[in-house]
Specification:
The complex is a heterotrimer. By secondary structure, chain A is α/β, with parallel strands linked by helices. Helices cover 45% and strands 14% of the residues of chain A. Chain B is mostly helical. In chain B, α1 packs across α8, α4 crosses α6 and α7 packs antiparallel against α8. The chains are: A alpha/beta, B mainly alpha, C alpha/beta.
């Protein structure tokens, strides 16, 4: 009974504070989709903005899928969130994908500006597209660094893939048109969570992963370079509402400080910390800001 | 629905039924003798039932994680999926067999022994015939739940209607989701009805 | 003449619980021994020692001159008819198959089994044509117990054991079946051990009465001798008669 009362009191006070805060300036609202990487990025944005601009920030992380988050941007419920160029182009704008990262980025920036009054800031520095990974310690893959090299692999590839890679047109079909990989049997399709286990246990010798999977930061696994750009770019970047940029003149400059700061390796390590080591996203985000010298 | 989808639907449905039938069959081959054994060994009963109970609570992905490294029976594909399904199907059949046998009237068992039946005759002439309806209902429960659990076979490359469900989730395509879920529900209903019918037919006239 | 059934210094414990202590008695061929006693006096245990459902902890039970521990229990049991209060008919067999089961186990020819079943059902007053194809569930309690007796007699065993066979029946049916039992006995005399807690039944059916109390044999006598008892547990049982308590 007492505890309920206490909580009720705190909630009431918080409500008043929020209302009071609203009257001064509306808080900046940071959103994210519902998976680890997005939540970490959302935390990074929120913490960075609070520190640099000293303004009120409201976190709406873990919201849902791409469509929901985009709609929240349109209706003004959130002001900024991390998005991937490929997703913006194909899922939101329903435009055809191309292989050229800069081309895709320019295209989404242009269309978002004219259609939605939203701004794509310069990319964060990593590309979360599909990536093929092998066991680093296999003696016969020592000379294989790229997918072109992989075409000459004599034993043949026993491939493990997830259902997304299997069913998306920019997944398996793209791999097969760009490269002539020698396969050893049909690919084994399985749950993403089991892919790495299957690779480690030598049930397969190549898997289709996502470039920033936390598990890829293990040093037992190496990724092969997509030297013919089979997979379309999924560069991560911040999307901001034009209104928010007007309300906070300093916002653009502050957010741009994050551009180019997060490499695929950095992102993998952060995902690994949360997914495998069970750290809190907020702590991981703070750690990143600190080590990137942004604090 | 596109013709390719229909083709897939047929293949995957057959695969799904195959997974269920083979797993329940293997589970029954193990669980019925185990149930009979347990009906005779009380001390064994608690920990073996406990073990099958525990297996039941292991999430399928975790179970697959355990099974992948095991040589011969593990790995990727149908074999591992079937192994997992067999493990999940054991409990209801063991329980059915045990309940069926232990539920037999004490007087019936005693007079069978007193009439000079050998342990084998007791089992085949008295215990099994009387326990059959309960064993069958255990198999029915195992089958219906297996139809549902068999969708996880797709998580380890074992095929079945789970492929549609996994693809549907991966590509946010509700048509694919339904293409997997609806036939699975249909198979569950039909097998429940069919096995229920057999159960009633085999329940004696007495 | 060797005794058909003989208890020599028999004690029996189940777990740590002593059930029978130093039991000595013998049953001559053709005799009907009624073991009379209250619940828990050890009468059922004594009965199960005869057909090797239990074995003595000490001492020896001899059936047809040989100790039960030294005999093949399956063969022994097939030579001993056994009837219990709950009858224990096989619910999934017809009446005919129930009655013919021991002959079936002994490998009789089907024709001979059919003959025997017909004969036995007629003997216990259940016309074969009417009852043979029914299932136990479709019969009344009294009819079921008749089938139980017919089943015990099927392979013409030398020894018949009955454990309160009429205990669950209404008084009228009970008397009826007792009469049947007496008629059967005069037809084909058998060594019989009959367990009951009903003193009237004991006096009516026994050629000898053994009184069991807390695992000990208090008394072994004829019905006449039993009636002349003036004290002890026997007198308590006799008191039931005079108060008109029929049970």
């Amino acid at each position: 009974m007492d505890r309920t009362k206490t909580i009720a009191c705190i909630l009431t006070i918080l409500l008043f504070l929020t209302v009071a805060a609203c009257k001064k300036t509306p808080p900046l609202s940071v959103g994210s989709k519902n998976f680890t990487e997005q939540v970490i990025l959302g935390e990074i944005i929120a913490q960075h903005v609070i520190q640099k601009l000293k303004i009120n920030v409201e976190k709406k992380l873990n919201m849902g899928g791409t469509l929901l988050v985009h709609q929240s941007m349109e209706s003004g419920q959130i002001d900024v969130y991390p998005e991937y160029t490929g997703t913006g182009l194909s899922s939101i704008l329903k435009l055809n994908m191309t292989a050229d990262p800069q081309g895709v980025f320019d295209r989404v920036r242009e269309v978002y500006r004219s259609s939605y009054q939203m701004e794509w800031l310069d990319p964060l520095g990593f590309d979360n597209s599909f990536v093929m990974a092998v066991r680093r310690n296999d003696s016969d893959v020592q000379n294989i660094a790229t997918l072109s090299d992989a075409e000459n692999y004599q034993p043949g590839w026993k491939l493990g893939i997830g259902y997304e890679f299997e069913s998306r047109p920019d997944g398996m079909p793209k791999l097969n048109t760009a490269y002539r990989l020698p396969f050893n049997g049909a690919p084994a399709t399985m749950d993403l969570g089991l892919l790495y286990k299957a690779l480690e246990q030598k049930q397969v010798n190549m898997i289709a992963a996502n470039a920033t999977d936390g598990q890829l930061s293990k040093d037992t696994i190496k990724t092969l370079t997509d030297d013919r750009h089979a997979f379309p770019p999924y560069q991560a970047a911040l999307v901001v509402r034009g209104k928010a940029l007007e309300t906070y003149p300093e916002l653009r400059k502050v957010l741009l400080q994050l551009s180019g700061k997060i490499s695929a390796e950095t992102m993998r390590k952060m995902n690994y910390a949360v997914d495998v080591e069970h750290s809190q996203p907020a702590e991981v985000a703070a750690g990143f800001l600190h080590s990137a010298g942004l604090q | 629905m596109s013709p390719a989808l229909v083709q897939d639907l047929i293949t995957l449905t057959i695969e799904h039924i195959f997974l269920v039938v083979i797993s329940v069959f293997i589970a029954a081959l193990i669980a019925i003798p185990a149930g009979i054994l347990l009906s005779r060994r009380q001390p064994l009963r608690r920990w073996l039932l406990g073990l099958t109970n525990i297996v039941q609570t292991i999430p399928s992905l975790a179970l697959f994680g355990f099974l992948i490294p095991i040589p011969w029976i593990g790995g990727i594909g149908k074999r591992t999926a079937i192994l997992a399904l067999v493990l999940y199907a054991l409990l209801p059949i063991v329980r059915g067999t045990l309940t069926g046998i232990l539920g037999i009237d004490r007087a019936v068992r005693e007079s069978a022994v007193a009439m000079g039946m050998t342990p084998k005759q007791l089992l085949w002439m008295v215990e099994m015939p009387l326990a059959v309806p309960v064993i069958l209902s255990g198999i029915r429960v195992a089958t219906v739940t297996s139809v549902g659990t068999a969708t996880i076979a797709a998580a380890i490359g074992g095929g079945g209607l789970g492929v549609f469900i996994f693809r549907g989730i991966a590509s946010v395509d509700s048509t694919l989701l339904l293409a997997g879920a609806v036939p699975a529900a249909f198979i569950a209903l039909v097998s429940d009805g069919g096995l229920g019918w057999i159960e009633r037919r085999l329940s004696p006239a007495y | 003449m060797t005794a058909a059934v003989e208890f020599i210094d028999v004690s029996c414990r189940i777990g740590n619980q002593p059930i029978l202590r130093n039991l000595n008695l013998s049953v001559a061929p053709g005799e009907t021994l009624v073991l009379l006693g209250r619940s828990g006096s050890g009468k059922t245990t004594a009965l199960k020692l005869i057909n090797a459902l239990l074995f003595p902890s000490e001492g020896e039970v001899r059936v047809n001159g040989a100790a039960t521990v030294s005999q093949d229990p399956i063969r022994l049991r097939r030579q001993v008819g056994y009837v219990i209060q709950d009858v224990g008919l096989f619910p999934h067999f017809t009446i005919g198959r129930n009655v013919g089961l021991v002959p079936e186990l002994q490998g009789w020819a089907p024709g001979r089994i059919r003959e025997r079943v017909k004969e036995l059902l007629e003997t216990v007053g259940l016309p074969e044509s009417e009852f043979s194809h029914r299932y136990p569930r479709q019969l009344s309690g009294g009819q079921r117990q008749r089938v139980g007796i017919a089943r015990a007699l099927a392979a013409d065993p030398a020894i018949l054991l009955l454990d309160e066979p009429f205990g669950a029946l209404d008084p009228v049916t009970r008397i009826e079946l007792q009469d049947h039992f007496l008629a059967l006995r005069s037809l084909t005399p058998k060594t019989t051990v009959f367990v009951t807690h009903d003193v009237q039944e004991a006096l009516r059916l026994g050629t000898k009465i053994g009184l069991l109390n807390e695992g000990r044999l208090e008394l072994l006598t004829t019905p006449k001798g039993f009636l002349s008892q003036k004290g002890g547990v026997a007198a308590q049982f006799l008191a039931c008669l005079s108060t008109g308590e029929v049970r």
